[in-house]
Amino acid sequence: MKYEEKKILLRNGKTVVFKSPSEDDWRAMIDYITCMAAETPYILREPDECDDTEESEKAFIRRYNESENECMIAVFDGGKVVGNCNMSIKNRKKVRHRAELGIGIRKSHYRLGIGTALITELSVLARKAGCTQFELTYVDGNYRAKGLYEKCGFVEVGRMPCGVRFGDGTYADDVYMRKLL
Ligand SMILES: CC(C)(COP(=O)(O)OP(=O)(O)OC[C@H]1O[C@@H](n2cnc3c(N)ncnc32)[C@H](O)[C@@H]1OP(=O)(O)O)[C@@H](O)C(=O)NCCC(=O)NCCS
């Protein structure tokens, strides 16, 4: 599913572009995910798990763009990808009303309203596709994500105790949230 490109005005007066990445953006996308893995403990990938190649990244982008039930929006500040959000609608008839969401923003662009704008855009797409609920998980302790999701109307519905184990051997719960569309 492709997202129609849009310019978004940020809180600091600058603009970024929301668009579905094209295969030509493979290098900027790898740079983004490698940076995210190093910057935050709250995405699942560790830096040594960023082993994407030109071929695998192009295939990843193509999969989203050609899919009927998945959509990815990348946030471009000039030629640089500074954020990303993806939505995946479940496939089987009995669960087709449910869409899952994942999101990340580079530290340099925190708190400018990008997260809120991405969730707003994908909520519209999910609703148009017939979904009635949005779902996500975040790692307990990720107060930025909790704040964003609550602001956007998500409510905690459960937890997976010790859902994540960090490199130092400590654990954190995975928190499940839902928002009605
Ligand atoms: C979580 C994340 C996506 C938030 O994105 P963002 O673009 O900074 O979010 P926004 O600017 O739209 O902020 C939305 C709301 O979140 C809350 N929030 C964000 N940062 C916060 C902070 N440091 N303290 C308290 N609340 C905060 C606020 O309610 C904020 O609204 P406000 O600025 O109007 O008060 C971003 O911090 C991020 O990518 N973190 C690293 C990766 C990650 O954790 N991804 C989520 C995995 S589940």
Cα-atom Rg, whole angstroms? 16 Å
How many discrete structural domains?
1
Enter the CATH topology name.
Aminopeptidase
Tell me the series of helices and strands, N- to C-terminal: EEHHEEEHEHEE
Q: How many beta strands in the DSSP annotation? A: 8
- The chain-level mean pLDDT equals 97
CATH architecture name: 3-Layer(aba) Sandwich
How much helical structure, as a percent, in the residues? 25-40%
Bound molecules: coenzyme A
CATH C-level label: Alpha Beta
CATH superfamily: Gcn5-related N-acetyltransferase (GNAT)
Query: Which word captures the global form?
Result: globular
Largest sheet: 8 strands, mixed
The first-to-last residue Cα distance is: 19 Å
Supply the helix-strand structural class: alpha+beta
Identify the strand order in the major beta sheet.
Answer: 1-2-3-4-5-6-8-7
Q: Which strand-content bin applies to the residues?
A: 25-35%
Total of DSSP H or I helical runs spanning 4+ residues: 4
- Uncertain segments of ≥5 residues (pLDDT<50)? none
Structure explained in plain terms:
- The protein has about 180 residues and is an alpha+beta fold.
- The chain has a single domain, classed as Gcn5-related N-acetyltransferase (GNAT) (Aminopeptidase).
- The chain contains 4 helices and 8 strands, in the order ββααβββαβαββ.
- It has helices spanning about 25-40, 55-65, 115-130, 145-150, and strands at about 5-10, 15-20, 70-75, 80-90, 100-105, 135-140, 155-165, 170-180.
- The chain has an 8-stranded mixed sheet, with helices on both faces.
- Strand 5, helix 3 (about 115-130) and strand 6 (about 135-140) form a beta-alpha-beta unit.
- The model has no long low-confidence stretch (mean pLDDT about 95).
- The protein binds coenzyme A.
